[in-house]
């Protein structure tokens, strides 16, 4: 279809409607209004700027009005107003539908990307449409806060605006998933994820951000995303401090839990006797955690637990008595600390190993 034909299509039948209105003084019927809306939708689908067909409506009206008496102007303008309004309504309706379809396609792509549920070759093709080249290595950062966040939320919009302003032209994907904020960036651009982490931490009022390692290919995005999620989970279970967690710094934890049964056996064997202590095993686990986290410095561990150094020392002696392992002895310390980490990972003794 030629440009002229497309142009004529926008105002087809309009001249007859205007003449009819001038002769009878009537307004457009419901069917005629819907026909104008359909033409508006068609213009939007063709990508025609709305200003152009609106201008054509007024041109047709001027031509129709020229041979008519001045008294007919009122009726003609009233119908023209109806026609233009219906045309724009149809145009906007088509645009809204297109936006919704695009959002649905984007959400489907993101789900497939983060869960690896699509053919990798096809996924790579779709990724280019959203600004990613999956032939490169990518890393994923995931931010969580005190409340869930979704696309279009002020927090998500603010971070997206800051990111696009700072890194205009970069191949970055910003989205949300399961109430968390997510950024996918090329693996050789750690500054992008570092900036995202800073923005997300501020925007979520002190939330946590985890950054997965860089991995190649479409499957690499899934891998990095899962690493970031696991890091957030570890931070919650282990009480890890710091606003930004790097999966590369936490690799020891997956290693320790790779053989879950072996870890459960270690925890039960080493820490099981603590159940016999006054108050159960939980207070002793907390004591050992504070002691190890403070670098085995009794004064600092006591401060963290709001205890006197004497009370802390008594607890450590009691642990030695119950388990046979001395927290102050380097040889015993490694076994105890590994068992304590395992207990925290397995949520022991609240959940029996």
Automatic annotation (TrEMBL):
Residues 116-234 form the CdaR GGDEF-like domain. Pfam families: GGDEF_2 (PF17853), HTH_30 (PF13556). Gene3D superfamilies: PucR C-terminal helix-turn-helix domain (1.10.10.2840). This is Sugar diacid utilization regulator. The lineage of its organism: Bacteria, Bacillati, Actinomycetota, Actinomycetes, Kitasatosporales. Belongs to the CdaR family. PANTHER family: CARBOHYDRATE DIACID REGULATOR, DNA-BINDING TRANSCRIPTIONAL ACTIVATOR ADER. It comes from the Bacteria. Residues 285-340 form the PucR C-terminal helix-turn-helix domain.
